[in-house]
C-alpha cells in the first residue's frame, strides 16, 4: 500500500450522525504527538518514520508536531530528544526519571497519560513494536479513547478527524477507522510501513520538561535483569536492503537452503511466507507480511510465493520486486517489477552461482582489467 499520491480520505459511508459535536472537555486538544521509543539507549527507527508521517498530518491540520521522550536521566535520553528534532519535531516533551530506565507498563502509562492530560494532544502515534503495542493499549484504556492498531495509512479527513486505515477480515479488506468523539485519536504503525523521512541538521527547538510524580515503591513490577534474545536479534528483515524469501512453491524444508545460499551470496537477509512458519520450516521472526515483518528493501526476491494480499502488504514498499514462480497467473506478477516464470528449485542455484561469480573479488579484478 503506497502512501504516496494518496487521495485525502473521504468520510466513511454512514458517518453522518455518528459524529456529534466534540464534548467541551476535548475542544482544546491540539497538535500531533509521536512517542519516541527508547529501549536500552536506542531510539527505534519506527519513531522517525512516524515523525515523517506526523509532519504531514500536523501540516494539514496547521498544528505543531511534538516528540515525547520518556527515559532515565542521561545522555541517551537527551540524544533521543535531539534526534526527534532532526527528524522534524517542532517541540519535544521529555520526562526523565530513573524509574523510566527499563520499559514497564505501569510507570510509562502513568507518565504518558499525565502528559496527555496536561498538554492535550489531538493525535498520538506510537510504533506497533512490542513495547509500543503494550503502551498504546493501556494508555488508550486509561484515557478511555479509541486506538487503531497496525495502521497502513494515516490521513486527516475534511473535518480534521484522523482517518486511520488498517487491514481487516484477515487482511483481505482495508477499513478506515475514526475516533470521532474522544481525544486523543490514537494509532500504532508497524516499522517500515511509512517511509523514513530525511534527517536534517535542524537545531534543537522548544523542550518542555515534565516532572514525574511517581516513586519506585509505588510500582508493582521490578526489572531484575536483562537477558538478550540472541536468536531473534539475528533477523533484521525490516531494515535490510536486500531480502530473499521462499514460499510453499519450494516444496520441502530442505529447499530453503537454496534461498539462504542466494541470500548469503548477495549479502541479503532471508525470509519466508507464513505457511513455512506454520510448518516449522522457518522461525516466526523470518515471516514477511501482514502478520510478520513489513520490509522496505531496495531489492526483494520472492521464490515460490504466490503473492497473497497478506504477503503483498508486507513487501510492496520494496523498490524492486523480483518474483520467481512457475505459474504465470500467480498474483505476485501483478505487483512484481520483474517476473521470472520458471522452477525456483532449478533457477535459484543458477542465480546464486551467477551472483557468486560476478561478485567474487577475482571476477571483479577481471572485470576491471
Ligand atoms: C489473518 C491472516 C494473516 C496472514 N498473514 C500472512 C503473512 O504475514 N505472510 C504471508 O506470507 N502470508 C500470510 N497469510 C497467508 C496468505 O493468505 C497465503 O496463504 C500465503 O502467503 C501463501 O503462501 P505461499 O505463497 O508461500 O504459498 P502458496 O499460496 O501455496 O503459493 C505457492 C506458489 O509457488 C508457486 N510454485 C509452485 N512450485 C514452484 C516452483 N517449483 N518454483 C517456483 N514457484 C513455484 C505456485 O505457483 C504458487 O504461486 C495470512 C493469512 C491470514 C488469513
Give a written overview of the molecule:
InterPro entries: DHS-like_NAD/FAD-binding_dom (IPR029035), ETF_a/b_N (IPR014730), ETF_a/FixB (IPR001308), ETF_alpha_N (IPR033947), ETF_asu_C (IPR014731), ETF_asu_C_CS (IPR018206), Rossmann-like_a/b/a_fold (IPR014729). By secondary structure, the chain is of the alpha/beta class. It folds into two domains: 24-218, HUPs (Rossmann fold); 235-358, 3-Layer(aba) Sandwich (Rossmann fold). The protein is built from nine helices and 17 strands. The strands form four sheets. A seven-stranded parallel beta sheet has the order 7-11-6-1-4-5-12, with helices on both faces. It starts with 31 loop residues before the first strand and ends with a helix. Mean pLDDT is 91; it is low at 1-6. Bound molecules: flavin-adenine dinucleotide. The site of flavin-adenine dinucleotide (FAD) has 29 residues, from helix 6, helix 7 and helix 8.
Domain module count: 2
Oligomer: single chain
Q: Count the beta strands.
A: 17
Question: Proportion of β residues?
Answer: 15-25%
Structural class label: alpha/beta
Distinctive features:
369 residues; alpha/beta; Rossmann fold; 2 domains; seven-stranded parallel sheet; 17 strands; 28% helix; 21% strand; binds flavin-adenine dinucleotide; Electron transfer flavoprotein subunit alpha/FixB family protein; Rossmann-like_a/b/a_fold; flavoprotein; ETF_asu_C_CS; ETF_a/FixB
